[in-house]
Structure formats: C-alpha cells, structure tokens
Amino acid sequence: MGDELIPISTNAPRDEGEVSVSMRAVKMRYGAILLVAFLVALVFKWVSQANTFWKVFPAMDDKCHGDDYCLASTLTFRLSFSLFIFFFIHAIMSTGFARHCLGDVNFHSFIVNGMIIKVVLLIVLIFISCFIPFDFFVGYGWLAFCMSILFLLIQSVILLDFAYGWNEKWIPSDGVYETEEDASRYRMWTIICTFLMFSGGVVLCSLMYKWFSPDGCPSEDKNLRLFFITLTLLFGLLGGLASAGIERGSILISNFAFIYCSLMTYSAIRSRGEEACDELYSDPTKVSFNTILSLVIAGVAIIHASMSAGSARSALTTSSPEPDDDYFSFSYFFSCFCLGSCYLAMTLNSWGINTGTDHSDQSAVATDTSEASMYIKMGAVWTTMILFTWALLAPILCGSGGICCTDRDFD
C-alpha cells in the first residue's frame, strides 16, 4: 500500500513541505472540477426544458421523444458517467502498481500538472457520452444508485472521524495542552459549541414537530414523520447522557452527531414533498428556497466527503494506523470522487432511474424530492447513529477487559 501514498505532513522538512502545499492545492483543483460539474449538471437539468439542442443526438432522444424530464434526466446521468470514468482513470493511475510503472516523478506530474488538458478531456468524454445508447444508462443508473448508498455510508464515517479529530484537538486524550491559556480557551469554545449544537438540534426537532404534523395530515404519514423526529431527538438526548457518563465519551462529538442527524432528518422529511403534511411545502416544479437548500446540502456533502476521503483513510480501514502514518491516499481520494459522481446523478434525479417517457408527468426542475430520497437519507441518519453508538461502546465491549477483540488497543 505504500506505493500509492504521498506524505503530506506539514511538519516535514522544507522539500516535503512544498509537496504538502501542492497536494492541498491539487485537492482543491479536483474538488473545483466536481463542483463545477455539479453546477453544470444542474443547469443542464433546468435549462433543458426550453433547449432543443440536445434533441439532435439520436441516442439521447431515443426513448425520451422530446419529454423534458426524460431528457434532463439522461443529461445528468451522462455527465455523471463521464465524471465517473474521468476519476476512475485517476484512481487506477494512483494504485501502487501504476505508480511503480510511472515512477515517482511521472506520477507526481500526472496528478499535479495538466489540469487544463484534463478538463478538455473531460469535455470530450461528455461529448462522447451523447452518442452512447439510452439503455446503457439504465444500467448505469442502477450502478449509480448502489454507489451512492456506499457514498452516504462513507460520508457518515468521515463526519464522525472529523468530529473525533476535532475533539482530540480541543480536548486531548492525555489532558495535556501546550499552555494554560490554550487549555482555558479550548475548554470555553468546547462548552460554547456543544451548547449551540445541542440547542440547535433540540430547537430544530421541536420545529419539525410543528411543521410536519399539521391537522390535515393522514395519520399514517404523520406517525411516520413523528417516528423519525422522535428517534432523532432521543438519540441526541441519550447520546449526550451516555457520552457524559462514559469515560471515553465526549459531549462535543455526541452533539455534533445530533445536529447532523437533525439536519438530515429535516432534509429527508422535506424530500417527501406532501403538501398536506408539510407546512413549509413548496411546488417542486418551481425553484424554491427548499430546492436551493437541498442542492446546497447535497453539493457540500459531495465536495466535503470526496475531498476528505484520502485524509480520512485510516477511518475507512479496519487495521490500526501506525503512529507516524501521516499520508494521503490518492487512490482512496479518486475512488470517493467516483462515488461522488454517482451521488450527483441520484440527487439531481431524486433517486430515480430514467427508463424513458414513463416519467413524463414529472418536472425537470424537481430535485431530490421523492419517497426513495426520504428513506435513503433516513438510512444515512440511522447509520450515523449506529456508528456513533459503536464508537462509544467499542472500548468497553472490546479491547483490554472486554468480551471480544481483547488485543485491540483503543488508546
């Protein structure tokens, strides 16, 4: 595995420090490509209603027959597929075998240089995708669906890994700070952030009880929404109490997980888009605040999870990292960008698979609004709850004095 890793330690000597800066810059460049692609896909989806240009490609209009939703959907899937191939090639070229064949100098040059040429090649890939038969993207849609679920699982792991890193920086496990001033400052900010996240989660859950259970809502739908909200609220309350009572627990981490789950629960329920059960309901066929908010959340999730994957590599493996294992994995990095490319398509198509004009009653503007979207987001919430609970209980149940994996060190 060492062949595919590049040191990024900021404490490295001068030459390695220069490489470190360039690696951070490269992460931003590839992140910018994915972000721009997300915005372009959004423009394709919304503008295609009045744009007849894409209908000149027989492969694209083969089963759409001029239908706006169908055409917008296949556009986003083709762009997603082009991105997937683009980043998949980079992932392959970042493996240990490929790097060994290229040599370190050529490998660094491939990763860092030629961004303009790569963008041009990506545009060529998008153009070529316009000639691929329609049925191919039905199969790709199912692949994107599965990969997107994996992306959400990885996102949960990365967010918790971020929370634990944040906690370790502000509240070191050994209790040692560089200065007494640092100790008082970090403790003060820990209390402030914990209070804000807990208060935000409680307030949001309270508002969701009001927003998503109006009198006119059918009892079955109302009970389902109340179940989602109550489970999230209980997680925040019980998780905070458990973290305060367990030696290795942290109320900073528990409340970070609580506010994330609260926001995802809000987004999930809004994705259902039923006027009778949503006081904040807005017409999904028109661009609204909820549409913009959903897209911002999706965009931030895609970029953050994709760009953090390489640095959070140890959180995605079952082996314990070495004490000095300060590396960045580009194969993990580009693999997560592949998953992000799939997630882009599923978000913009409300987790639906385009099979032709059978979706003609839907609007091309509708984004991330479906029952499937609601359940998948709630699945991400429950996954985060399970991962947090396991991280809290694992040091007690396993390791020294535990009932399993007694050789595992959780210090």
Output the keywords.
two-stranded antiparallel sheet; 411 residues; 12 helices; 2 strands; disordered N terminus; 67% helix; mainly alpha
Rg of Cα set: 23 Å
Strand order of the largest sheet: 1-2
Distance between the termini: 25 Å
Gross morphology is: globular
* Helix proportion: 55-70%
Q: Which sheet architecture does the biggest sheet show? A: 2 strands, antiparallel
Helix count, DSSP H or I runs of 4 or more residues: 12
Kindly report the average pLDDT value: 80
What string, H for helix and E for strand, traces the elements in order?
A: EHHHHHHHHHHEHH
Count of DSSP strands: 2
Q: Which structural category fits the helices and strands?
A: mainly alpha
Short description:
This protein is mainly α. The chain has helices at 14-47, 68-93, 96-102, 104-112, 115-129, 134-170, 180-211, 219-245, 251-272, 289-308, 330-348, 371-397, and strands spanning 5-7, 327-329. Strands 1-2 form a two-stranded antiparallel ribbon.
Topology, pairings included?
Elements: E1 5-7, H1 14-47, H2 68-93, H3 96-102, H4 104-112, H5 115-129, H6 134-170, H7 180-211, H8 219-245, H9 251-272, H10 289-308, E2 327-329, H11 330-348, H12 371-397
Antiparallel strand pairs: 1-2
Helix pairs in contact: 1-2, 1-10, 1-11, 2-5, 2-6, 2-11, 3-4, 6-9, 6-10, 6-11, 6-12, 7-8, 7-9, 8-9, 8-12, 9-12, 10-11
What does this protein look like?
- The chain has 411 residues and is mostly helical.
- It has twelve helices and two strands.
- It has helices spanning 14-47, 68-93, 96-102, 104-112, 115-129, 134-170, 180-211, 219-245, 251-272, 289-308, 330-348, 371-397; strands spanning 5-7, 327-329.
- Strands 1-2 form a two-stranded antiparallel ribbon.
- α7 (180-211) runs parallel beside α9.
- The radius of gyration is 23 Å and the shape is globular.
- The two termini are 25 Å apart.
